[in-house]
Amino acid sequence: MNIDFNKENGLVPVVIQDNRTLQVLMLGYMNKEAFEKTKKEKIVTFFSRSKNRLWTKGEESGNFLTVKSIDIDCDQDTILIKVIPTNTVCHTGSFSCFGEKTSKGFLYELEEKISQRIDDKVDESYTYSLYQRGMNKMAQKVGEEAVELVIEAKDNNETLFKNEAADLLYHLLILLKAKGFALEEIEEVLQGRNQ
Fold first, then answer.
1. What is the pTM of this model?
2. Long-range contacts formed by 104-107: CB under 8 A, 24+ apart
3. What is the overall mean pLDDT for the chain?
4. What is the pLDDT of residue 154?
5. pLDDT tens digit string along 45-102?
6. Burial (CB count <10 Å: 0-12, 13-18, 19+), residue 163
7. DSSP letters for 60-121
8. Coil, strand or helix: which one is 55?
9. How many CB atoms lie within 10 A of CB 20?
Protein backbone atom coordinates (compact mmCIF):
# COMPACT_ATOMS: atom_id res chain seq x y z
CA MET A 1 0.00 0.00 0.00
CA ASN A 2 1.72 3.12 -1.23
CA ILE A 3 0.05 6.07 0.43
CA ASP A 4 1.01 9.60 -0.53
CA PHE A 5 1.57 11.24 2.85
CA ASN A 6 3.24 14.26 1.21
CA LYS A 7 0.16 15.99 -0.25
CA GLU A 8 -1.23 17.39 2.99
CA ASN A 9 1.76 17.97 5.26
CA GLY A 10 2.17 14.30 6.12
CA LEU A 11 -1.51 13.60 6.91
CA VAL A 12 -4.16 11.74 4.94
CA PRO A 13 -7.91 11.57 5.65
CA VAL A 14 -9.22 8.25 6.90
CA VAL A 15 -12.85 7.23 6.49
CA ILE A 16 -14.01 4.74 9.12
CA GLN A 17 -16.85 2.44 8.08
CA ASP A 18 -18.72 -0.27 9.98
CA ASN A 19 -17.67 -3.58 8.40
CA ARG A 20 -21.10 -5.16 8.89
CA THR A 21 -23.53 -2.37 8.04
CA LEU A 22 -21.22 -0.22 5.86
CA GLN A 23 -22.41 2.86 7.78
CA VAL A 24 -19.79 5.62 7.83
CA LEU A 25 -18.76 6.11 11.46
CA MET A 26 -16.22 8.91 11.45
CA LEU A 27 -13.42 10.72 9.67
CA GLY A 28 -9.93 11.07 11.09
CA TYR A 29 -6.37 11.65 9.92
CA MET A 30 -3.26 9.50 9.91
CA ASN A 31 0.39 10.13 9.41
CA LYS A 32 2.71 7.29 8.39
CA GLU A 33 3.39 6.30 12.01
CA ALA A 34 -0.33 6.10 12.87
CA PHE A 35 -0.95 4.03 9.74
CA GLU A 36 1.84 1.56 10.56
CA LYS A 37 0.62 1.24 14.16
CA THR A 38 -2.93 0.61 12.94
CA LYS A 39 -1.77 -2.10 10.51
CA LYS A 40 0.36 -3.79 13.17
CA GLU A 41 -2.09 -3.72 16.09
CA LYS A 42 -5.35 -4.05 14.08
CA ILE A 43 -6.81 -1.24 16.24
CA VAL A 44 -7.33 2.18 14.63
CA THR A 45 -4.83 4.86 15.66
CA PHE A 46 -5.09 8.38 14.29
CA PHE A 47 -2.85 11.39 14.39
CA SER A 48 -4.77 13.91 16.49
CA ARG A 49 -4.37 17.39 15.06
CA SER A 50 -5.66 18.99 18.28
CA LYS A 51 -3.43 16.92 20.61
CA ASN A 52 -0.55 16.88 18.11
CA ARG A 53 0.19 13.22 18.82
CA LEU A 54 -0.84 9.67 17.97
CA TRP A 55 -4.25 8.87 19.38
CA THR A 56 -5.75 5.38 19.51
CA LYS A 57 -9.53 5.66 19.21
CA GLY A 58 -10.91 4.29 22.47
CA GLU A 59 -7.77 4.82 24.57
CA GLU A 60 -9.87 6.71 27.13
CA SER A 61 -13.42 5.47 26.47
CA GLY A 62 -12.65 1.84 25.70
CA ASN A 63 -14.62 2.20 22.44
CA PHE A 64 -11.95 0.75 20.17
CA LEU A 65 -12.22 0.23 16.42
CA THR A 66 -11.01 -3.25 15.42
CA VAL A 67 -9.69 -3.28 11.85
CA LYS A 68 -11.26 -5.71 9.38
CA SER A 69 -9.87 -4.27 6.13
CA ILE A 70 -7.87 -1.34 4.79
CA ASP A 71 -8.24 0.13 1.30
CA ILE A 72 -6.56 3.07 -0.42
CA ASP A 73 -8.35 5.28 -2.95
CA CYS A 74 -7.27 5.63 -6.59
CA ASP A 75 -5.21 8.78 -5.88
CA GLN A 76 -3.44 7.07 -2.97
CA ASP A 77 -4.24 9.94 -0.63
CA THR A 78 -7.32 8.71 1.28
CA ILE A 79 -7.72 5.59 3.39
CA LEU A 80 -10.91 3.58 3.95
CA ILE A 81 -10.86 1.33 7.01
CA LYS A 82 -13.69 -1.08 7.71
CA VAL A 83 -13.98 -1.84 11.41
CA ILE A 84 -15.97 -3.59 14.10
CA PRO A 85 -16.69 -0.89 16.71
CA THR A 86 -16.61 -1.93 20.36
CA ASN A 87 -19.46 0.46 21.15
CA THR A 88 -20.54 3.95 20.16
CA VAL A 89 -18.01 5.86 18.08
CA CYS A 90 -18.82 9.55 18.47
CA HIS A 91 -17.65 11.48 21.54
CA THR A 92 -21.27 12.71 21.90
CA GLY A 93 -22.43 9.16 22.58
CA SER A 94 -23.96 8.62 19.14
CA PHE A 95 -23.23 5.41 17.29
CA SER A 96 -21.64 7.41 14.46
CA CYS A 97 -20.29 10.96 14.12
CA PHE A 98 -22.83 11.23 11.30
CA GLY A 99 -25.87 10.20 13.34
CA GLU A 100 -27.45 7.22 14.97
CA LYS A 101 -27.25 3.61 13.85
CA THR A 102 -29.26 2.90 10.72
CA SER A 103 -31.15 -0.29 9.94
CA LYS A 104 -29.34 -0.64 6.59
CA GLY A 105 -26.98 -3.57 6.79
CA PHE A 106 -28.44 -4.80 10.10
CA LEU A 107 -28.90 -8.28 8.63
CA TYR A 108 -25.13 -8.72 8.86
CA GLU A 109 -25.18 -7.77 12.52
CA LEU A 110 -28.04 -10.22 13.09
CA GLU A 111 -26.18 -12.91 11.15
CA GLU A 112 -23.17 -12.40 13.42
CA LYS A 113 -25.34 -12.61 16.55
CA ILE A 114 -27.03 -15.80 15.30
CA SER A 115 -23.63 -17.33 14.54
CA GLN A 116 -22.30 -16.33 17.94
CA ARG A 117 -25.25 -17.87 19.80
CA ILE A 118 -24.84 -21.11 17.91
CA ASP A 119 -21.05 -21.24 18.21
CA ASP A 120 -21.16 -20.34 21.92
CA LYS A 121 -23.96 -22.90 22.53
CA VAL A 122 -26.13 -20.36 24.37
CA ASP A 123 -28.67 -22.74 25.93
CA GLU A 124 -31.30 -20.14 26.81
CA SER A 125 -31.29 -18.84 23.21
CA TYR A 126 -34.18 -19.72 20.87
CA THR A 127 -31.67 -19.60 18.01
CA TYR A 128 -29.45 -22.27 19.54
CA SER A 129 -32.38 -24.45 20.65
CA LEU A 130 -33.75 -24.45 17.09
CA TYR A 131 -30.28 -25.22 15.74
CA GLN A 132 -29.98 -28.19 18.11
CA ARG A 133 -33.24 -29.65 16.78
CA GLY A 134 -31.53 -30.36 13.47
CA MET A 135 -31.69 -29.55 9.79
CA ASN A 136 -35.20 -30.86 9.21
CA LYS A 137 -36.68 -28.65 11.94
CA MET A 138 -34.78 -25.55 10.75
CA ALA A 139 -35.88 -26.12 7.14
CA GLN A 140 -39.45 -26.77 8.29
CA LYS A 141 -39.44 -23.50 10.23
CA VAL A 142 -38.34 -21.57 7.12
CA GLY A 143 -41.19 -23.22 5.21
CA GLU A 144 -43.72 -22.33 7.92
CA GLU A 145 -42.59 -18.71 7.96
CA ALA A 146 -42.77 -18.54 4.14
CA VAL A 147 -46.35 -19.83 4.19
CA GLU A 148 -47.29 -17.33 6.92
CA LEU A 149 -45.80 -14.52 4.82
CA VAL A 150 -47.81 -15.62 1.79
CA ILE A 151 -51.00 -15.63 3.86
CA GLU A 152 -50.29 -12.14 5.21
CA ALA A 153 -49.50 -10.91 1.68
CA LYS A 154 -53.11 -11.62 0.74
CA ASP A 155 -54.41 -9.41 3.57
CA ASN A 156 -53.96 -5.69 4.18
CA ASN A 157 -52.29 -5.68 7.60
CA GLU A 158 -48.90 -4.07 6.93
CA THR A 159 -47.62 -4.71 10.47
CA LEU A 160 -48.33 -8.45 10.33
CA PHE A 161 -46.85 -8.69 6.82
CA LYS A 162 -43.62 -6.95 7.88
CA ASN A 163 -43.35 -9.12 11.00
CA GLU A 164 -43.77 -12.32 8.99
CA ALA A 165 -41.16 -11.10 6.48
CA ALA A 166 -38.78 -10.45 9.40
CA ASP A 167 -39.49 -13.92 10.83
CA LEU A 168 -38.71 -15.49 7.46
CA LEU A 169 -35.40 -13.63 7.12
CA TYR A 170 -34.41 -14.51 10.69
CA HIS A 171 -35.07 -18.22 10.21
CA LEU A 172 -33.37 -18.17 6.81
CA LEU A 173 -30.22 -16.79 8.47
CA ILE A 174 -30.29 -19.69 10.96
CA LEU A 175 -30.65 -22.17 8.08
CA LEU A 176 -27.78 -20.52 6.17
CA LYS A 177 -25.56 -20.85 9.26
CA ALA A 178 -26.50 -24.51 9.61
CA LYS A 179 -25.66 -25.13 5.95
CA GLY A 180 -22.33 -23.33 6.33
CA PHE A 181 -23.16 -20.39 4.07
CA ALA A 182 -22.96 -16.65 4.69
CA LEU A 183 -25.47 -14.01 3.65
CA GLU A 184 -22.72 -12.42 1.56
CA GLU A 185 -22.54 -15.57 -0.58
CA ILE A 186 -26.25 -15.30 -1.36
CA GLU A 187 -25.77 -11.64 -2.26
CA GLU A 188 -23.01 -12.70 -4.66
CA VAL A 189 -25.42 -15.09 -6.39
CA LEU A 190 -27.96 -12.29 -6.77
CA GLN A 191 -25.28 -9.90 -7.99
CA GLY A 192 -24.16 -12.46 -10.57
CA ARG A 193 -27.70 -12.65 -11.91
CA ASN A 194 -27.76 -8.88 -12.36
CA GLN A 195 -25.04 -8.78 -15.04
1. 0.72
2. 104/21, 104/22, 104/23, 105/18, 105/20, 105/21, 105/22, 105/23, 106/21, 107/169, 107/173, 107/183
3. 93
4. 95
5. 999 999 999 999 999 888 999 999 999 999 999 999 999 999 889 888 888 999 888 7
6. middle
7. TT---EEEEEEEE-TTSS-EEEEEEESS--STTS-SBTTBSPPSTTHHHHHHHHHHHHHHTT
8. strand
9. 19
